[in-house]
Structures are given as C-alpha cells and as structure tokens.
Design brief:
Layout: H1 5-23, H2 32-55, E1 70-72, E2 75-76, H3 77-108
Antiparallel strand pairs: 1-2
Helix pairs in contact: 1-3, 2-3
C-alpha cells in the first residue's frame, strides 16, 4: 500500500476540492481550455526541472513510496500527477474564494 500513498493523496486532494466546483461555483472543470492553458506550461517546466535534477543526481524518488511506473527515466507517474493535481486543487480553491468574496461584496452594496 505504501507504493500508492502518493497517488491516493493526490486523488483525495482532487476529491476534497471537487465540491468547490459545484457548491461555490469555481468553474475550473467547466473551462477545460483555460485549465489546460494554466496547467501545461507549469507542468512542462517542472517536468524538465525534475528530469535535470534527477539526471544530475540532485534528487530522486524513493521507490518504496512511488508506483514504479515511470513516464521518463527516473520520473515516476506519481510526480506528473502531482504537477497536475495540486494546481487544479489550488485553482479550485482560488476561484471558490473569489466567488465567495464577490458575493460578500455584492451583499455589502
């Protein structure tokens, strides 16, 4: 089970922030082009960074805590999922907070 902890945690992050889409109207998942525009450049940059860091032996990933499925040499799929899941959770939170603040601002007027 240790090998799947990282993926399980990323899944839980997405699952726990998913209600923000519907309850608070975050509209992150409903705008896929905008989501990809936000995700892809950052994920690509971080992936290149990881590839260089692993190649230079600056860091690595403990096989005990990753699935062992690599997308590139030394880069587990778990890391790529992290580069996608965490920003999505952050965007959901940001948009939900913006919506709540906008509602409060309208109520104050």
């Amino acid at each position: 089970m240790d090998r799947y902890q990282y993926l399980i945690l990323m899944g839980l992050c997405l699952l726990l922030t998913l209600p923000l889409e519907f309850v608070l109207g975050a509209r992150v998942w409903r705008r896929p082009r905008r989501l990809l525009t936000a995700l892809l450049p950052v994920a690509a940059l971080l992936l290149v960074w990881d590839v260089i860091a692993v190649a230079r032996d600056h860091w690595g990933f403990n096989p005990k805590y990753t699935t062992g499925w690599n997308v590139l040499p030394g880069i587990p799929v778990d890391e790529v999922v992290f580069f996608v899941a965490v920003p999505i959770c952050g965007l959901l939170t940001l948009e939900a907070v913006r919506n709540v603040l906008a509602r409060f601002a309208k109520a104050d007027q």
